[in-house]
Amino acid sequence: MRKIVLFAALFLVLFQVKAELKLPKVFADHMVLQRGQEIPVWGEADPRQRVIVTFQDKEYRVRADREGNWELRMDAFPKGGPYILTVNTSKESLAYENVMMGDVWLLGGQSNMEWALKNTNNGEDSIKVADYPNIRLFEVGRDLSLQPLDDVAEAKWSVCTPATVENFSAIGYYFARRIQADLDVPIGLLDINWGGTVSEAWTSAEALATHGDFSQRIATNQAEGPTDFSDPEVRKPNNWPTSLFYGMLEPVIPFAIKGALWYQGESNAGRAYQYREIFPLMIQDWRKQWGQGDFPFIWVQLANFRQPKEKPGDSDWAELREAQSMTLSLPNTAQAVIIDKGEADDIHPRDKWTVGERLARAAKKVAYGMDVVYSGPTFKSMEVQGNQIRISFDHVGSGLMVKDKYGYVKGFAVAGADKEFHWVKGFQDGNQIVLETGDIDQPVAVRYGWADNPDDLNLYNEEGLPADPFRTDDWQGITYGKK
User: Locate the Sialate O-acetylesterase domain: which residues (predicted)?
Assistant: First the structure.
């Protein structure tokens, strides 16, 4: 009998440890909840305990399961605030204050998305005036895991002030400023990124297991991978596909969002051909995991980088940009082309304001349905006419524009059947570009901006958005087959 009593007491102690009413760190004072759609709220409580969530005079009730986990969905609400969100059981109560209803955007990727406002052009001036109470910042600390976690290791919400924004994502801040100013809506930014990382680190095991290049690695990691990443030799996310998805992203899912902004690809450039598949795989994976349908996903195309080359040739960065552009085949996607804003000697261009502005343009179209020109010219077709080639474009906006005193377009190369490319002269003819092929015998292929750093590109539309680099050939590139 005594053993039974002791066992019961031990069970009660364990039961009480689990019993704490708790929500993930993404629920906190100053948070922004997504307007206009149902809002998932989830957490832990006593097993089988009744949980009551109260928001804007409405009550929502759910019973925790046998493990103490619970989830419910609140109604859709319009923009507004500040409000208080309360969560209660018969034993405990939580209250989150200064809650706004607005639009929540995820900021994902590597170091250029992570890049702090204080380290950008005119960053100090921007920080001085960054007192915007309707912009809220949520920062997730770095962590790795190969298995799902209950919550992120570190995270906090804060109101945008000069003190809180100086180390925050510059791109995210400039994007939020533009959207908030033009749409008059509170903005929440989920800053979840890690410099130098590859896209497969941000993709789930479920998704990567479907790709032949990663399926065996995923199976091995799931069975034999580390559970402790505190050792610096182990704490290397690029060595562990899925590690950032589970360590930093998955614990925030399914927190309702408006969409995602993504700046990444530098670390995948050596495998650009593979990126054609794993980048859209990641996007589709996120959308499936969130369960929000095809939410807007907008990325930054890689900027120009490294020293310019005198002759046209192959480029892994050009192939990565091509893979990014090909991913526009997915619904509700767009990209911000910044081929004119890079720096030859720095992989981190300091002009983040332009990047934020171009992302905001794309968001206005894809996420908000506004009638705006959101893309620069993109290749439509080519026609060989004797010793000339005529190029037509989509997304010309109010018209093509060549930024050159004499109207000459730069950055075009043409090849014949020998696959040897040569620079060619070109000029604008209305909304087309005409290239002079000169002595090139039987020209068959055109490339524009096809280099690590095509630093002299000057083709835009009248709205000031640069043309997307492209090629008309499908010849095997230098990253084909690389894993």
Answer: 103-363
